[in-house]
Design a protein that fits this description.
By secondary structure, the protein is an alpha/beta fold. It has two domains: 217 residues, Alpha-Beta Barrel (TIM Barrel); 162 residues, Alpha-Beta Barrel (TIM Barrel), CATH 3.20.20.70. It contains 14 helices and 20 strands. The strands form four sheets. It has an eight-stranded parallel beta barrel with strand order 1-4-5-6-7-8-9-10, surrounded by seven helices. An eight-stranded mixed barrel has the order 11-12-13-14-15-16-17-18, surrounded by four helices. Strands 2-3 form a two-stranded antiparallel ribbon. Helix 2 packs across helix 3, helix 2 runs parallel beside helix 10 and helix 11 packs parallel to helix 14. The model has no long low-confidence stretch (mean pLDDT 94).
Length: 385
């Protein structure tokens, strides 16, 4: 495999940032887009690779790919409707590291020939699937990396739920990329927790006043969770402040107990916080604590569809105990820090541990289950600083 796949397989959630002037589904996006300047800015913002539309239906050309190649050394994906060896040769000559192969348009024999042709040019074949049948074909063909597109190219409709199911069902060992419909950190985190190694983001970047700044925003870690939510107005406040996760405590003994998991906007993932056993709520995630002697255990596990995806370390941040820092730093995998975090303590915790997410509850409220707008906003801002 080539350097495109290698870049996407790096630790953490990676991003393929796209350059396109227009879209058949969305119309004009950025007619005056300069591929050279945007690709270079994407690289500085943390993109693992850049996708360049070279098809005229997207107002793209091979010169766009050449321009991007001239200003950045990170891997480039040539994106178009490729079906012949001549297409792949043109991509290689223009400076691509990978080419898109759409299973919707290619039978297995043709796709296999093109994958071999791509390899002869030292190009990675980025094979894209849109449904379970196409994903099964991609796996059988040995495709790696595999793209799973949330957009139905016949209707242009986005179904992120179906996409996440497909991402979760992909076999381990393949680099999996979630494509389309990703516009914020919560979307990226949902794909990551479903098992995606990378996301491909296009329209959301090209619509933004500063595409590279938008990319940086989507990739920003740690994520910020506001927990102990009990009121719709506080959910809205958390979303407006820029939080990514909304926590609803369902333990009967908690003074912050919510009646249930409230609806959340598209920019938030909902988290049901349970003790002893999960409660079926329809939440995106479950934060599960063990029950110890009738009380909540100290740490928790974050679950997606019953599978562990992160560890929650609930530590005595307000005590003079240096041992908790070492314990947090030594934890493997994704770590969410919780327990006594507020606007005055969260930055130190982030700097010392570099967690995947941070969780604020008591430090964001005026009373148990009632958020203080100023405290909540300060907490999110401090975590983002």
């Amino acid at each position: 495999m080539g350097r495109f796949r290698e870049a996407l397989a790096a630790p953490g959630l990676q991003a393929i940032a796209e350059v396109k002037r227009r879209s058949p589904s969305a119309g004009e996006l950025r007619p005056d887009a300069d591929p050279a300047a945007i690709a270079a800015a994407y690289a500085r913002a943390g993109a693992a690779a850049v996708s360049v539309l070279v098809d005229e239906r997207f107002a793209g050309t091979w010169d766009d790919l050449r321009a991007a190649r001239a200003t950045t050394g990170i891997p480039l994906l040539a994106k178009g409707f490729f079906s012949t060896p001549d297409d792949l040769r043109a991509a290689a000559e223009a400076g691509a590291d990978a080419v898109l192969l759409l299973l919707r348009d290619l039978d297995d024999a043709t796709c296999t020939r093109l994958m071999k042709e791509a390899a002869s040019y030292r190009l990675d074949a980025f094979v894209e699937a849109h449904d379970a049948a196409e994903l099964a074909r991609a796996v059988a063909l040995g495709a790696d990396p595999v793209g799973i597109n949330a957009r139905d190219l016949s209707t242009f409709e986005i179904d992120r739920g179906r996409q996440l199911e497909l991402v979760a069902s992909a076999p381990s060992g393949r680099v999996v990329v979630a494509e389309s419909g990703i516009a914020n950190r919560a979307h990226g985190a949902a794909a990551e927790l479903a098992g995606a190694d990378a996301i491909l983001v296009g329209s959301a970047l090209m619509r933004a006043p500063d595409p590279a700044a938008k990319l940086r925003e989507i990739l920003t870690r740690p994520l910020v969770k506001v927990c102990g939510l009990t009121r719709e107005e506080d959910v809205a406040l958390a979303a407006d402040a820029g939080a990514d996760l909304a926590g609803f405590i369902l333990a009967p003994s908690s003074p912050r107990r919510a009646a249930g998991v409230l609806p959340v906007p598209d920019s938030l993932l909902s988290v049901a916080v349970c003790v002893g056993a999960p409660v079926e709520t329809g939440a995106d995630l479950v934060q599960l604590y063990e029950e110890e002697d009738g009380h909540r255990g100290r740490d928790a596990v974050l679950l997606r569809d019953g599978a562990p995806v992160a560890t929650v370390l609930d530590l005595p941040w307000l005590d003079e105990d240096e041992g908790h820092w070492e314990r947090a730093r030594e934890a493997e995998g994704r770590v969410m820090l919780a327990g006594g975090l507020d606007a005055d303590t969260v930055r130190a915790a982030i700097d010392r541990v570099q967690p995947w997410a941070v969780d604020g509850a008591r430090g964001t409220e005026s009373a148990p289950g009632v958020k203080d707008p100023a405290k909540l906003i300060r907490f999110v801002e401090a975590a983002r600083d």
